[in-house]
């Protein structure tokens, strides 16, 4: 084997990289265990402990040190279904945007066009602005859009004589800008919320923003935080020299308070940390800090100057190069990891008495290039109405990033309306009145300072240029922030899922149990069937799982329950490449080759099948990734990573192990006596009897179609909209009684199903489905609790909830349909390009569509009969596409062997049907073995994986069985009917006289 040294080097490098990525998870888990041990069940204490450790170094590698916050950002993040928390989809109201840009006209046709566009947008793939323009032209064919949008605020973009196309282009730009600005505002708010490992994504091409907040349990606070309007303000500022004496007093008071606290703590009963509720300052200390402060002099300095030890005063060099306080509104700098401690210091009751009411201290939004890893602290002056900002941000009409024509450096140009221009003239005149002490004006969004430019002179016309040490990205961000202040629209929650921590822990346990058991079964089977070669495959599988977890950690991927299912499924399919290799090695050994030559030729001849089969599965994973959302992305990510790592481990690592065994002269066996001849001389007449299987499949599909059109499916909430709640009771309940009470309370039919046991149910209701407001959420929840409370003597708890608006549901259905069609088309094209025969491509497309339809049929027939949920939802779509990938995987292996035979001269004059039959029989052992390993792990996942993914695992389990059937009985035999060169009639139908073909020499 060539390149052994390189492969060994790669294995070592990848292993070290994966171990490094996973090490952060081990470190953070230890800190969290310590927090739990300290808190002893008190969640307030536990949270205070973790907050105190946020800026503490918990991982020291010598060349690099990581705080708990930094380590947490590098760990494997758990999704909501594993950790609990909140998942929301925000939708920017473009209807509100268009109406506000036109200054809320009273024109009937204009407002009707808005409503019609809103209705159409729920089922159309066109953008809202395009739909509005279409509707407006229908209702007012002779009216001009410019007559509505040529307002004073829009004068820079829309003139009275602007064409409809120009106005539409303006509206498209404003819509795109509103969505981008909303995204930036929401991202800033989430960063301030303090959520560990938040995830926020802008859905490209839509007006929706996806947000995941793991571990959050205060849903009302999240809703208020996310749905509030962006608050842009302008504040007068203090000079650093005015504030420094106050900070000195704060530092002195803190030193005194800390010393007293330390004495009290030492006199307590040996407690490492005093009760965090005694004072907000104590939570800052955290348990175990003494062990981190190894330098006694630094520790003493920190005790004497607690504030200035964390907040470095803003200083510079004076005329004689002497240190002095730097002029301007910045009063200090703190490391990112220390900002939480500084905040706690400033919130201390003693400190609050020192800071005057007319002083506010605000952080900058991000570190500046001059001070990387540090945030600036600004001092602003409440001097406006009600002791607030001096000017509100709603006076901004536009802002754009530009270049200073004199210095050619990036800058921002800001425009104000007439009212704002008058106030701005007064403010800027006052700020620049003293030429020796020009003041800065802070631009603040949601309590964070984005910029604080120094006013150089009076600005009379409301047009300002903001210059400074900006990058192009900085000016873009600042322009977006300024425009966010006049954002003429809001973002509302249209989809929401709340998962309780108890359900999350149950999901973790189920996922771990199923993963471990599935892995054990695969390992045992490989040893039992392949003898010593099975041990080699097992080592490769273990490396594969290790690499998957390491890559997930390095990519900061979020691990979800479907992601765990993807790992379990990958363990089953990871042996596929080894099975292909081992079956080919066994064929080579039967030809009388030595073990060394058989291994070499086995790897060589199996490579084509391995690559083709894995690439087709990878393509379905890519389609899932691009069309899926939420947990499905986790499944797709895991599946694609698993395919790449399994190729590396099964092809290279197993080969290196075999080479090492050969150099040591260790005996290598690829079977036991009982398994060495399994299906060796298989010669079943698959092609001769193909029409029987055509009939069987047709009958099943016809029966299924009748069920689909009469009985239908149960659509999950993400496909039909509505609200779903998982309810836990303290003892088993009567399902019919619950259903009857809820039907009466809601005044409509309510879907009620058991969910993982007799004491837990899942309730789905379409009550107020069109309403997505907080009031509607509360109304539905009140109705639910009223109906459940009618069952006397039984306590209930809502452990999770999900809300999906009708627009989201329609969009998900559309994406699911596109995903299905795309998968079939992409796979068919790959087969066509790879095998150069349209017959192969058509047969593959028909059989994959057949497999998907059979799963739909089974879900329709068994829905309501089996004791678990068979909802058609996103997880179901992921399962179907996974089966499609597996089906084509199986089919490609047969096709690859058929292509090999068709290229041999000895088969030039043999009927195509006979050659196809031989190809199926020669790959039958591999097909059966691979299917069995996958079925084993899926059966484990189905039984032990938990109720949340039982329907998902059932769909894949049934699909694997169907895919195995179709790859053997339908796909390859179908080529006989598509290929007309050598008709199938040459095949003998009499079993006594039919021709048999011996194994082919390579």
Structural features:
1002 residues, SecD_SecF_C, 5 domains, eight-stranded antiparallel sheet, protein transport, SecF_bac, alpha+beta, transport
State the separation between the terminal residues, measured CA to CA. Answer: 19 Å
Regarding CATH, which class of the largest domain?
A: Mainly Alpha
**Nearest-angstrom radius of gyration?**
34 Å
Task: Give unreliable regions as ranges.
Answer: 265-295, 982-1002
Question: Which strand-content bin applies to the residues?
Answer: 5-15%
Label the structural class.
alpha+beta
Compute the number of structural domains: 5
Instruction: Give the overall shape, derived from the CA principal axes.
Output: globular
Total beta strands: 25
Per CATH, what is the topology of the largest domain? Multidrug efflux transporter AcrB transmembrane fold
CATH superfamily caption of the largest domain:
Multidrug efflux transporter AcrB transmembrane domain
Organism: Parapedobacter pyrenivorans
InterPro entries: SecD, SecD/SecF_arch_bac, SecD/SecF_bac, SecD/SecF_CS, SecD_1st, SecD_SecF_C, SecD_SecF_C_bact, SecDF_P1_head
GO molecular function: protein-transporting ATPase activity
Pfam families: Sec_GG, SecD_1st, SecD_SecF_C, SecDF_P1_head
Characterization of this structure:
This protein has 1002 residues and is an alpha+beta fold. It has five domains: 4-75, no CATH class; 89-196, no CATH class; 233-266 and 303-486, no CATH class; 500-670 and 684-711 and 810-986, Up-down Bundle (Multidrug efflux transporter AcrB transmembrane fold), CATH 1.20.1640.10; 722-804, 2-Layer Sandwich (Alpha-Beta Plaits), CATH 3.30.70.3400. It has 33 helices and 25 strands. The strands form six sheets. The chain has an eight-stranded antiparallel β-sheet with strand order 5-6-4-20-25-22-24-23. Strands 7, 8, 11, 12, 13, 14, 17 and 18 form an eight-stranded antiparallel β-sheet that branches. Strands 15-16-19 form a three-stranded antiparallel β-sheet. Helix 28 runs antiparallel to helix 29 (838-862).
């Amino acid at each position: 084997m060539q390149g052994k040294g390189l492969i060994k080097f790669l294995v070592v490098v990848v292993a070290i990289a994966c171990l490094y990525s996973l090490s952060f998870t081990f470190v953070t888990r230890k800190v969290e265990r310590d927090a739990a041990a300290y808190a002893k069940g008190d969640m307030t204490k536990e949270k205070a402990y973790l907050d105190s450790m946020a800026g503490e170094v918990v991982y020291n590698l010598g060349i690099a040190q990581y705080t708990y916050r930094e380590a947490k950002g590098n760990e494997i993040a758990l999704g909501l279904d594993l950790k609990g928390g909140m998942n929301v989809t925000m939708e920017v109201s473009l209807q509100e945007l268009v109406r506000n840009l036109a200054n809320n006209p009273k024109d009937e046709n204009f407002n009707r066009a808005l409503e019609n566009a809103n209705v159409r947008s729920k089922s159309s793939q066109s953008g809202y602005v395009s739909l509005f323009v279409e509707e407006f032209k229908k209702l007012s064919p002779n009216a001009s859009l410019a007559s509505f949008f040529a307002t004073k605020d829009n004068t820079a973009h829309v003139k009275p004589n602007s064409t409809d196309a120009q106005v539409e282009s303006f509206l498209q730009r404003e819509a795109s800008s509103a969505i981008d600005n909303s995204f930036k505002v929401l991202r800033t708010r989430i960063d301030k919320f303090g959520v560990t490992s938040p995830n926020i994504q802008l859905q490209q091409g839509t007006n929706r923003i996806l947000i995941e907040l793991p571990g959050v349990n205060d849903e009302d606070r999240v809703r208020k935080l996310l749905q509030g309007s962006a608050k842009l303000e302008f504040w007068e500022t203090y000079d650093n020299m005015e504030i420094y004496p106050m900070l000195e007093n704060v530092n002195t008071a803190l030193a005194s308070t800390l010393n007293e606290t330390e004495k009290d703590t030492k006199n307590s009963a040996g407690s490492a940390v005093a009760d965090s509720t005694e004072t907000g300052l104590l939570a800052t200390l955290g348990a175990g800090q003494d062990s981190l402060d190894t330098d006694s002099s630094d520790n003493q300095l920190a005790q004497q100057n607690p504030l200035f030890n964390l907040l470095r005063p803003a200083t510079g060099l004076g005329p004689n190069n002497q240190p002095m306080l730097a002029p301007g509104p910045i009063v200090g700098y703190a490391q990112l990891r220390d900002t939480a401690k500084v905040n706690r210091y400033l919130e201390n009751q003693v400190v609050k008495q020192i800071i005057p009411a007319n002083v506010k201290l605000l952080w900058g939004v991000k570190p500046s290039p001059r001070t990387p890893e540090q945030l600036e602290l600004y001092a602003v002056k409440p001097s406006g109405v009600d002791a607030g900002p001096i000017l509100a941000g709603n006076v901004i009409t536009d802002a754009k990033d530009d270049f200073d024509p004199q210095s050619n450096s990036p800058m921002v140009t800001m425009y104000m309306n007439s009212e704002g221009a008058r106030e701005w003239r007064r403010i800027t005149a006052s700020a620049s009145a003293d030429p020796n002490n020009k003041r800065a004006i802070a631009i603040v969004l949601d309590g964070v300072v984005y910029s604080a430019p120094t006013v150089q002179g009076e600005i009379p016309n409301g047009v300002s240029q903001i210059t400074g040490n900006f990058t192009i990205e900085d000016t873009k961000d600042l322009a977006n922030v300024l425009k966010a202040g006049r954002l003429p629209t809001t973002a509302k929650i249209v989809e929401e899922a709340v998962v309780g921590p108890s359900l999350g822990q149950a999901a973790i346990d189920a996922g771990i149990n199923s993963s471990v058991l599935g892995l054990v079964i695969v390992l045992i089977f490989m040893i039992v069937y392949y003898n010593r070669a099975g041990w080699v495959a097992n080592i490769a599988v273990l490396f594969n799982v290790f690499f998957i977890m390491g890559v997930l950690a390095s990519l900061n991927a979020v691990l979800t329950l479907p992601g765990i299912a993807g790992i379990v499924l990958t363990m089953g399919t990871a042996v596929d490449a080894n099975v292909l290799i081992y079956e080919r090695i066994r064929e080579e050994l039967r030809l009388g080759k030595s073990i060394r030559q058989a291994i070499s030729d086995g790897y060589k001849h199996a490579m084509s099948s391995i690559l083709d089969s894995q690439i087709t599965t990878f393509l379905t994973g890519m389609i899932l990734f691009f069309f899926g959302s939420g947990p499905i992305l986790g499944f797709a990510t895991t599946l694609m990573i698993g395919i790449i790592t399994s190729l590396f481990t099964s092809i290279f690592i197993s080969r290196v192990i075999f080479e090492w065994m050969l150099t040591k002269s260790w005996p290598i066996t690829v079977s036991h006596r009982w398994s060495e001849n399994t299906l060796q001389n298989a010669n079943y007449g698959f092609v001769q009897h193909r029409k029987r299987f055509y009939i069987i499949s047709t009958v099943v599909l016809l029966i299924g179609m009748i069920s689909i059109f009469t009985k239908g499916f149960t659509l999950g909430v993400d496909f039909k909209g509505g609200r779903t709640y998982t309810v836990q009771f303290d003892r088993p309940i009567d399902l019919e009684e619950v259903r009857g009470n809820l039907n009466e309370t809601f005044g409509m039919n309510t879907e009620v199903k058991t969910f993982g046991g007799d004491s837990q149910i899942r309730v789905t209701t379409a009550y107020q489905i069109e309403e997505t407001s907080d009031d509607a959420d509360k109304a539905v929840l009140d109705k639910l609790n009223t109906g459940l409370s009618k069952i006397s003597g039984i306590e209930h708890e809502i452990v999770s909830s999900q809300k999906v608006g009708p627009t989201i549901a329609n969009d998900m259905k559309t994406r699911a349909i596109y995903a299905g069609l795309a998968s079939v088309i992409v796979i068919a094209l790959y087969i066509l390009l790879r095998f150069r025969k349209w017959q192969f491509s058509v047969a593959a497309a028909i059989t994959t569509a057949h497999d998907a339809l059979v799963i739909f049929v089974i879900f329709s027939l068994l829905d309501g009969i089996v004791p678990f949920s068979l909802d058609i939802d996103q997880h179901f779509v992921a399962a179907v596409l996974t089966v499609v990938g597996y089906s084509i995987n199986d089919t490609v292996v047969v096709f690859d062997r058929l292509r090999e035979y068709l290229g041999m001269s000895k088969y030039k004059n043999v009927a195509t049907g006979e050659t196809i039959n031989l190809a199926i029989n020669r790959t039958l052992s591999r097909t059966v073995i691979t299917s069995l390993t996958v079925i084993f792990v899926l059966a484990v996942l189905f039984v032990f994986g938990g109720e949340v993914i039982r329907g998902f695992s059932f769909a894949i389990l049934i699909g694997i069985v169907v895919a195995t059937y179709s790859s053997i009985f339908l796909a390859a035999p179908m080529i006989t009917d598509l290929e007309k060169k050598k008709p199938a009639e040459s095949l003998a139908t009499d079993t006594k006289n039919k021709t048999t073909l011996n194994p082919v020499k390579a």
